[in-house]
Amino acid sequence: MVLSPVVLAVTVNSAYAQSSDRSQPTLLSSDTLSGTGTYQQEQIHFYRFLAGPGELVVTLDVDAGSTNGNGVVPSVSLQDVDGGTQFADLDAYATPGNPGHTVKRVNFSKATPVIMLVNLPGGTTGNYTYRMKLNGAFRPIADQTSSQGTAPVQIRAGEKAVVRFQLSNGVVQEIDLSKVQGITVNH
Fold first, then answer.
1. By CB neighbour count within 10 A (0-12 exposed, 13-18 middle, 19+ buried), where does 151 fall?
2. Residue 129: which residues within 8 A CB-CB, separation 6 or more?
3. Is 41 within 8 Å of 123 (Cβ atoms)?
4. Within 10 Å of residue 10's Cβ, how many Cβ atoms?
5. Is 20 within 8 Å of 43 (Cβ atoms)?
6. Which of 39, 45, 1, 37 is nearest to 19 (CA)?
7. Low-confidence ranges of the chain (pLDDT < 50)
8. E-strand spans in the chain?
9. How far apart are CA 71 and CA 125, in angstroms?
10. What are the Cα distances from residue 185, in Å, to 12, 170, 180?
11. What pLDDT, on the 0 to 100 scale, is given for residue 162?
12. Which of 166, 92, 77, 103 has the alpha carbon at shortest distance from 129?
């Protein structure tokens, strides 16, 4: 068998990628998240970032729109990477015409890896929007792409490697290539 190198150059200008797998959370490189909770479909997303040292301020804003019946209550949980320690929980209740707003402050004595679980319940009669802002002791995951947005990498078959994608909204996603069966690039 001949092992030939594969050269990979990745440019990502994709829609929002969010992980629903706690063991592979989306890496945050931006201090702001926003999106849409969908009608009658719960969504749970996992993100990873560093917090501390110092005070992390988490702000959650929710707009239920004008057609969302009894309202919605998205929630956020900040946990250690093992899920054994809960740093903070917050939620924001919103009804049509009455947006929800919650602020939570958490102190970290040192730089700490954090898993953030975002639970978006299904809207009762329509979609809703949310926006989350991380201020203070938020430390984004470093951007490791070049200024052109590409990262040429040479990979030999059988080698372990991780490809890191940074999306236009600042979210970073990693893919363990040892788990990839094939790659197709459409352009």
1. middle
2. 34, 35, 36, 37, 62, 63, 65
3. no
4. 16
5. yes
6. 45
7. 1-16, 143-153
8. 5-8, 26-28, 32-37, 43-63, 75-79, 86-91, 100-108, 112-120, 128-139, 153-156, 162-166, 171-176
9. 9
10. 12, 22, 14
11. 67
12. 92
Q: What is the pLDDT of residue 12?
A: 28
Residues in the chain: 187
- 16 is written with which tokens? 């929002």
Task: Please state, in angstroms and rounded to a whole number, the distance separating the CA atoms of residues 73 and 3.
Answer: 53
pTM check: above 0.70: no
CB-based contact 135:103 (threshold 8 Å): no
Distance of CA 50 to the CA centre of its chain: 13
User: What is d(CA 103, CA 57) in angstroms, rounded to the nearest whole number?
Assistant: 7
Q: How far apart are CA 153 and CA 159, in angstroms?
A: 12
Task: Write b or e for each residue in 19-35: b if 16 or more Cβ atoms lie within 10 A of its Cβ, otherwise e.
Answer: beeeeebbbbbbeebeb
pLDDT (0 to 100) of residue 126: 72
HSE-up (13 A, CA, CB side) for residue 161: 16
Task: Tell me how far the alpha carbon of residue 160 is from its chain's centroid.
Answer: 24
